[in-house]
Design brief:
Layout lengths: L56 H4 L13 E5 H11 L3 E2 L1 H6 L8 E5 L9 E4 L1 E2 L1 H9 L3 E4 L1
Parallel strand pairs: 1-3, 2-4, 3-5, 4-6
Length: 148
C-alpha cells in the first residue's frame, strides 16, 4: 500500500448537486424550488418549530419546573463502603485520594458521605459533605470528620 494509491471507500463520498446551472443539468429552471410561493423566493425563512399552522410542540407542552443554578451534584459514598475500603487496605484515614485509589471516584467530583451501613473502625474521614447520620456514626465509632 502506498500513499498515492489511497482512495475513499466505494460509495462513501458524494458530489454535491449543482442546482440552477441550466436545463442540461436537469436541475435548472426552478432549481428544485417548485413554482411561485414564499418558499420559491430568495430570503424565505420559516420560523423555528413551525408545524404548518398546527400549534407547535413548544407551545402545546406546559411549562414546568426550574433549574437551580446553585445546585451542587455530589458523588455518594456510604459508610459500608468506607468500612470495606478501610478493612481491605488497613487504613485509619480516608480522603479523596483513597477513594480515587479504590476506583470509586475520579477525584474531580464532590464527595458526600452518607449513613447507610455499619462503621466499626475508628476512621478520620475527609470529604466535601457529610449527612447527619454519617457524621454521628463516624463520631460514635471514635472517628473524626473533616470537610474539605
Amino acid at each position: 500500500m502506498k500513499l498515492h494509491t489511497l482512495k475513499p471507500a466505494e460509495g462513501s463520498t458524494h458530489s454535491r448537486r449543482r442546482i440552477g446551472r441550466g436545463p442540461g443539468s436537469g436541475l435548472g429552471g426552478t432549481s428544485t424550488r417548485g413554482h411561485k410561493g414564499a418558499k420559491a423566493r430568495s430570503g424565505y425563512k420559516r420560523k423555528i418549530g413551525f408545524e404548518g399552522g398546527q400549534m407547535p410542540l413548544q407551545r402545546r407542552v406546559p411549562k414546568s419546573g426550574f433549574k437551580n443554578i446553585n445546585h451542587k451534584e455530589y458523588f455518594a459514598v456510604n459508610l459500608s463502603t468506607l468500612q470495606r475500603i478501610a478493612e481491605a487496605k488497613n487504613l485509619t484515614k480516608i480522603g479523596i485520594e483513597e477513594l480515587v485509589a479504590a476506583g470509586l471516584t475520579n477525584g474531580k467530583e464532590l464527595v458526600k458521605i452518607l449513613g447507610k451501613g455499619e462503621l466499626t473502625l475508628k476512621l478520620e474521614v475527609e470529604a466535601n459533605a457529610f449527612s447527619k447520620t454519617a457524621e454521628e456514626a463516624i463520631k460514635a465509632a471514635g472517628g473524626n470528620t473533616t470537610i474539605i
